[in-house]
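Hey, can you fold this one?
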Amino acid sequence: MQFHEHPHEHPHHHEHEHVFDRRSALRLGGLGLGGLLLAACAPSKGASTSTSTELAASSTTTAAEVATTIASTTSGAADPTTTSSAVSALNTLPGFDEFASTVKVFTSGDYWQIESNGLPAHNMMVGITSWQQQVPLPMTYKGSNAWQLPKKPALADNPVSAKTSLYRGAIALAVNGVPIFNALNNRGEDAFLVGELDKWGGHCGRADDYHYHVAPLHLATIVGSAKPIAYALDGFAIYGSTEPDGSTMKKLDAYNGHVGTDGVYHYHGTTTYPYINGGMRGVIRGVVGDQVDPQPSAKPFREAGAPLQGATITNFSSPKTGQYALEYSQSGKTGLVEYTVSDSAVAFTFTSPTGAVTTEKYTR
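Sure. Predicted structure:
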């Protein structure tokens, strides 16, 4: 079947969709997944510290510079009071620089701080067949609630496997600012194989927080093979389906990673389980409540929704900044969720398949 791929993420959502085999589509960039069981994801807990110093971004960072940045950056090499104009291009995390307009990278002591609203530029939610009436809302992953990644990741003596734990919260962060959760849902099932994900490998959790459960391989078409598509929360980079030099991917360990030719460990995204990092091969500060700790809180506006039996999400759009519309079908009729959101409030208008209209407003 003929279809086209977009080489970059657009600031608007596409109204046209192509139907094609889910597994074939995943091999072509993670763009062909099935439905969703949103109850599988609970909002994350915890907080992190950050500073207000944005680091300079570079669009020409090479794979060697990735290793240099991760392996050699120390707390003394990046003073959190340094202005962005005085920081060299190497003092940033490669990959994130391609999304500098929406994802901000800072430094604080021994950690990188990453701020985003958690929403991708690509479309979302289309194809979900098991829907708990959650919708994508921007999150406040910033300030004291920013993501934290170690500047100097180190291999752990006792790695944490995602096969047996880490069923809650994020285990990685994509370079477009979208969190990545365990490939297994909270029942230990492969979320992709049981059809819980949308066409981009993601869905919304119980806090209306959008996140992936598989590798966002389509990001490799934006950042290139030499840069990571994501970073595990232990700080190690996650590359696409080739080595950073573009060569065929070498044999992976149980955590979907290996030591590269530069002597630095890294993970890969794949089209088979575990799809992304298979756990924390690197040192982390702790696991609390079955999730990596600390990590940002999703800070929901409202209580989690209930499953809407027989509903299939058919379209999602953003007519204007801060305005969204989600369409779904149920029993052959169309329902609509329209909402307008700001940092502090969200207003909903629900039109049921029977034509009944209700409104709700929440603040946080």
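DSSP finds three helices and 20 strands in the chain. Let me know if you want another pass with a different chain boundary.
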